[in-house]
């Protein structure tokens, strides 16, 4: 049971990390597009 929770936690963190990376990338693109002038 504890092992399963750990695994779940690990997967959740990976997903969150991935989403964070995507958000950063999208923000970067957005800001570079809108601050060029």
Q: How many β strands by DSSP?
A: 0
Quaternary structure: single chain
Low-pLDDT ranges:
none
Could you tell me the mean pLDDT?
Answer: 93
Taken in chain order, the helices and strands follow as H
Which term fits the overall shape? rod-shaped
Instruction: Give the DSSP E fraction (strand runs of 2 or more residues).
Output: under 5%
Rg over CA atoms, rounded to whole Å, is 16 Å
**Terminal Cα separation, in Å?**
56 Å
**Helix-and-strand structural type:** mainly alpha
Counted by DSSP, the helix tally is: 1
Major beta sheet summary: none
**How much helical structure, as a percent, in the residues?**
over 70%
Give an overview in words.
There is one protein chain. This protein is mostly helical and 37 residues long. 0% of the residues are buried. The model has no long low-confidence stretch (mean pLDDT 93).
List the helices and strands and how they pair.
Layout: H1 2-34
Short précis:
Helices cover 89% and strands 0% of the residues. It contains one helix and no strands. The model has no long low-confidence stretch (mean pLDDT 93).
Keywords:
rod-shaped, 89% helix, mainly alpha, 37 residues, single chain, 0% strand
């Amino acid at each position: 049971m504890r092992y399963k929770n750990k695994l779940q936690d690990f997967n959740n963190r990976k997903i969150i990390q991935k989403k964070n990376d995507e958000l950063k990338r999208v923000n970067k693109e957005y800001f570079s597009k809108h601050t060029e002038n």
